[in-house]
Amino acid sequence: GKSSLMNLLVQEKVSIVTAKPQTTRRRVLGIVSRDEGQIVFVDAPGVLNASEGLNRFLSQEAADVIEQSDVLMAVLSVDMKSKEMAEKIIQLVDESKKPWFAVITKTDLKDLERRVDVIKELCAKHKSCFGVVAVSTKETNGQKALREEILKLAGLHLPITPEPLYDVDLFTPHSMKEVVTEIIRERCFEILHHELPYQIAVRVQKYDESDETLPKIYAEILVAKASHKPILVGKGGATIKQIGIESRKSIEEVVGNQVFLSLEVSVRDNWTENKKLMKELGYVVE
Q1: Do 49 and 118 sit in the same domain of this protein?
Q2: What is the distance between the alpha carbons of residues 268 and 152, in angstroms, rounded to a whole number?
Q3: Tens digits of per-residue pLDDT, 13-33?
Q4: CB of 106 within 8 A of CB of 136?
Q5: Is residue 97 helix, strand or coil?
Q6: Contact 29, 145 (CB under 8 A)
Q7: Which residues lie closer than 8 Å to 238 by C-beta, 6 or more apart?
Q8: What is the pLDDT of residues 210-220, one digit of tens each?
Q9: DSSP letter at 282?
Q10: Based on the structure, what is the number of domains in the chain?
Q11: Of the N and C termini of the chain, which has fewer Cβ atoms inside 10 Å?
Q12: What's the domain range around 245?
């Protein structure tokens, strides 16, 4: 999906990747800097229609990203539930009056090849669509060429600026605490998948780098109901231990050295409707 594509383009892990849909919570920025210039990709939450709580925040995040971007990339998966869903996304980006192109994902899925042509035909009806690329982030063959094709398309309509928006050595402007938060949340979804409710959040309470050889990270996983806590903890603490081990390994890949990671699970009743707590977690709804 969108997040796998983001990581492919940036060549670093910046977005949460999981088989569970609608897991991107806030906009995630990934930076590609080359001699020709700099492209900042923004992975936004999927499009939702909502007026309350967390879903309202997700909906507003998606709308803000569309409004603030120079070029839009519509990510259309061949396994969408219906043709109408693809049409809705195409209509949304087209109505923005901004140049846009489409990337068709999951083209490796068997028996769905015909849908690639259907999506291409839908895009061809709109003059503001200036390109369509079909990709599979799971198939390694040809990924380099596909990445180059997408980067070339993305750069066609970007404005010329006197200097890069971000330091050319950065692949994301997000703090390490934010990156760690997303890694832990990804591992929760990956390990539990269907068992795990959407209403979980991760908060890094402390990121201690006083010992450069072994940074210490203390994080809290929040659930919205008491009945959800045993799912995360597991029998004899086995599940939370597995989440911790796999999260730590992923964090170490990003930071380039060993880390100490401590996880605890806390119940915050209906936190997705608690504006104060949502603000503390970074889900601000004005």
Answers
A1: yes
A2: 46
A3: 776 554 444 444 567 788 999
A4: yes
A5: coil
A6: no
A7: none
A8: 988 899 999 99
A9: T
A10: 2
A11: C
A12: 176-280
